[in-house]
Amino acid sequence: MKVVRALFVAVGVAVSVGTALAMPNEVFQGKPTFTAGAALGAYVWHDADGQHVRFTTVENKVVRRFSGKVCGQEIAAVQPVRADVGDGIRVGPDGHCVMFDFKTNAGVDGFDFRMPEGDLVYDLNIDGAPMPVNKVHIGSTGTSPKNSPFSLNRDAK
């Protein structure tokens, strides 16, 4: 009985975290402000052209590795932005996740994609560790998520 109850609680928490922590659509509208080579960070936004993810590093000749995945219902039209030799990006076989692995030095790397609506879960890493939330900037206001991974609700309003 205790095992069943513990499992039920764990499943309930997982479901709650997945839905309750999703930031609303309006939070990630519009491009955040950033400059290549000025700061280390990840930038996430949505506009009329779709969803966008960018990574920047400080101009100091240290190569940083950005990797992870973004998952949603129907990931489509994935386009790398300023990808270099050795950078990787691919959509999973079910079309629900885009996995990426970029090496960046004093520039900008990233990708664009489309998804009509629903939750998007962002799992962003830097140099093999979770990206610190204070280095993630969402939408035109540059809001940082409270947790990592984080979820954005892309429901049409």
Secondary structure category: mainly beta
Q: What is the residue-averaged pLDDT?
A: 82
The total domain count is: 1
**Based on DSSP secondary structure assignment, what is the total number of beta strands?**
11
As a percent range, the share of helical residues equals 10-25%
The low-pLDDT segments are 1-20
How big a fraction of the residues is strand?
Answer: 35-45%
Count helical runs. 1
- Terminal-residue CA separation: 43 Å
Question: What is the 3D form?
Answer: globular
Biggest sheet statistics: 6 strands, antiparallel
**What radius of gyration results from the CA coordinates?**
16 Å
> What is the N-to-C succession of helices and strands?
HEEEEEEEEEEE
Nutshell version of this structure?
The chain is mainly beta. Helix content is 12%, strand content 41%. The N and C termini lie far apart (43 Å).
Write up what this structure looks like.
Helices cover 12% and strands 41% of the residues. By secondary structure, the protein is mainly beta. The chain has one domain. Strands 3, 5, 6, 8, 9 and 11 form a 6-stranded antiparallel sheet that branches. The longest helix is centred in the first third of the chain and has 19 residues. The chain is globular and about 40 Å long. The termini are far apart.
